[in-house]
Amino acid sequence: MSDLDHARLMLNMAGKDLKALQGMLEVNTFANEIFGFHAQQAVEKALKAWLNLVDVDYPRTHDLEELLALLESSGDTVPERFYALTDLTDFAVQFRYASFEDVDNQLNRAETICQVTELVEHVEKRFEDANEEAQ
To answer: Is pLDDT of 103 > 50?
Structure first.
């Protein structure tokens, strides 16, 4: 599978997680752990799609900070606003199997959805640009 094809696959999967997030605004229906997990997954998949676009191999990891560092080390510019998403890393593993009850650090679901949407849209734009260059 070419890097562009793999990038498209990862971006499509990120979009599915983002769509799930948009239906999880109701705190009493969807626990923070479930919402946070899908937010983390959308970010992870979008970052991996971006890494594919810039032809950077990445390890099997859920660590969003590590993925962002790989993008930076590739020479690509990562907008500062995306670094706030690294707080979601713990939802990939730690809070997937443990309770998230930190009332001082509750997730702002609407803001999280906005941030994840910005990242996915940024990578989609990068994908479109790469497609145009390939033609």
So the answer is: no
Boundaries of domain holding 9 = 3-134
Task: Count the Cβ atoms, other than its own, within 10 Å of residue 119.
Answer: 21
Residue 7's Cβ-count burial label (10 Å; 0-12, 13-18, 19+) is: buried
Angle in degrees, CA 93, 54, 116, rounded to 5 = 45
* pLDDT band per the 50, 70, 90 thresholds, residue 68: very high
- Name the band, by pLDDT with cuts 50, 70 and 90, for residue 7: confident
Q: Which of 33, 46, 38 is nearest to 19 (CA)?
A: 38
Question: How many domains does one find in the chain?
Answer: 1
CATH of the domain at 67: 1.20.120.330
**Dihedral sign, Cα of residue 85, residue 93, residue 13, residue 30:** negative
Query: How far is it, in rounded angstroms, from Cα 10 to Cα 29?
Result: 28
CA distances (Å), origin 1, targets 5, 96, 110: 6, 31, 35
As a whole number of angstroms, the distance between CA 7 and CA 109 comes to 26
CA–CA separation, 58 and 47 (whole Å): 10
